[in-house]
Specification:
Residues 4-138 form the Hemerythrin-like domain. One of its GO terms (cellular component) is plasma membrane. This is Purine catabolism protein pucG. There is one protein chain. The protein is mainly α. It has a single domain (3-180), classed as nmb1532 protein domain like (Four Helix Bundle (Hemerythrin (Met), subunit A)), CATH 1.20.120.520. It has helices at residues 3-30, 37-66, 74-102, 109-141, 144-153, 171-180. Bound molecules: fe (ii) ion. Fe (ii) ion binds at residues 8, 12, 55, 59, 130. The site of fe (ii) ion has 5 residues, from helix 1 and helix 2.
Amino acid sequence: MHHLLEKLHKDHRNLEKILDLLTAQLDQFLAGRESDFDLKIELLEYMETYADQGHHPLENVIFTVARPLVGERAELMDRLITQHHELGQLTRIFRNSLENIYQGGVMSRDELEVQGREFIALQRQHLALEEQEAFPMLDEVLTDEHWKTIIEQSPNHDDPVFDKPDKIRFQTLFEYLSRSE
Ligand SMILES: [Fe+2]
């Protein structure tokens, strides 16, 4: 498997960790127990700065290069690129909602629950679709030449949590991750 595909696969496992933490935090908050607002915001911040601005743009380059090579499965490439756009919007909306609720805004807990559960479910479905259907196909059709083109076009974007840790910006998240290890 090409190292970029391996990197994306590793990102997915990290994203699953982030989604697990978010789920646990949402459960606690909705059950009326104490939950960590700073952590929730940092989780969303990570989704915005890495998943939406680094990981997804790289996948978009790969899907675009692979698109003419995969026949009818071009539809899958298009669908995943569209989902990246939609997920990016959902991240922003959900983050705004969390901030609104903590600032005593008008949003109800029920509304937040629907939005949060949907956000997490769609993220997980998207990861599963890429892992199960897209990546095995990409691994088959992309040659070294294609990967060279992809690398030339790919954005250079470090992961601020799992690659180049920014321990100030993601302080709370690092505390949780080190406790869970
Ligand atoms: Fe992905």
